[in-house]
């Protein structure tokens, strides 16, 4: 039994590590969608943030500045998306896809000089707690961003459900016409939500490049932005469910690595598919109950709002 726990603890710790970037990105996308905006550009924002954070960290030696640069990089990409969909009224789906493709291409070009450079991975062992058998290595020996993600979850849950500003943001996603009639600036509310989403995707991208890998590689997100998008639906737009979903998909990712390490006779390509197969299966199961989604999905999700025609 002791041997089993010794093997299980690193796997659970790795699951939390793998789920953190999914959590961070999904929190930002959830706020976007609560405001009525569907941004399919998460993958591009994460890649731009990853190379921004990595380049700044390599240049300055400071991971803190790297995370700040990642958040700002994600916000800059999100600001471009916001101008297009909020002021120029472009299609949200097409603009998000364009942002994703643009971010992948630009990050690959900018990242050429940084290919092959690696950073030292960092974690923060919490005194006393990290020494607790089994629980300590699993929960209390992670990078500070892991704990920031959990605090962000609790903050978002309170903000969306118990604060006046959160209720106004949800109103902009449910019925922007009604919110506008009550005197709220729907365009600026959605802008703030989009920028927050960009910052969260930026932190997720920076986490991949600075902690999870830690190195720069073209296309290193490997579809995690799309999984984060799926997480918002899986979680029915509830922050605490995002955490559960992120850990589930993170666990599937770690499972494939552990199976490869144990020499399981399954083609590596099949095991690499596991996180994405799990995503499809979960979404298919959820889609079997459309009433459940209809009760939770923001009513105006993906629909542009022009205050001049309201």
From TrEMBL:
Subcellular location: Cell membrane
Protein name listed in UniProt: Nucleoside ABC transporter membrane protein
Source species: Noviherbaspirillum suwonense
Primary residence: membrane
Cited Pfam families: BPD_transp_2
Keyword list, A-Z: Cell membrane, Membrane, Transmembrane, Transmembrane helix
Listed transmembrane segments: 37-58, 65-87, 93-117, 138-160, 191-213, 269-286
UniProt membrane topology term: Multi-pass membrane protein
Keyword DNA damage carried by entry: no
């Amino acid at each position: 039994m002791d041997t089993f726990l010794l093997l299980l603890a690193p796997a659970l710790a790795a699951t939390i590590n793998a789920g953190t970037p999914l959590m961070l990105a999904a929190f930002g996308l959830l706020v976007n969608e609560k405001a009525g905006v569907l941004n399919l550009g998460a993958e591009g924002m994460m890649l731009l943030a990853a190379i921004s954070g990595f380049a700044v960290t390599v240049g300055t030696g400071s991971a803190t500045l790297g995370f700040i640069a990642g958040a700002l990089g994600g916000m800059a990409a999100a600001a471009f998306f916001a101008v297009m969909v909020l002021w120029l009224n472009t299609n949200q789906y097409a603009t998000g896809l364009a942002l994703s493709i643009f971010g992948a291409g630009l990050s690959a070009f900018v990242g050429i000089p940084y290919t092959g450079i690696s950073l030292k991975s960092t974690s923060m062992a919490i005194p006393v707690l990290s020494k607790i058998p089994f629980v300590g290595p699993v929960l209390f020996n992670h990078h500070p961003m892991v704990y920031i993600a959990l605090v962000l979850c609790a903050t978002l849950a309170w903000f969306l459900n118990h604060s006046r500003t959160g209720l106004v943001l949800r109103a902009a996603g449910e019925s922007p016409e009604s919110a506008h009639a009550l005197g709220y600036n729907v365009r600026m509310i959605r802008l703030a939500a989009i920028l927050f989403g960009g910052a969260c995707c930026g932190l997720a991208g920076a986490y991949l490049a600075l902690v999870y890998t830690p190195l720069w590689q073209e296309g290193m997100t490997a579809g995690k932005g799309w999984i984060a998008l799926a997480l918002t639906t899986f979680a029915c737009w509830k922050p605490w469910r995002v955490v559960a979903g992120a850990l589930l998909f993170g666990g599937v990712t770690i499972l494939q690595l552990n199976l490869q390490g144990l020499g399981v006779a399954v083609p590596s390509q099949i095991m690499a598919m596991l996180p994405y197969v799990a995503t499809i299966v979960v979404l298919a199961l959820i889609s079997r109950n459309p009433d459940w989604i209809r009760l939770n999905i923001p009513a105006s999700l993906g629909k542009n709002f022009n205050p001049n025609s309201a």
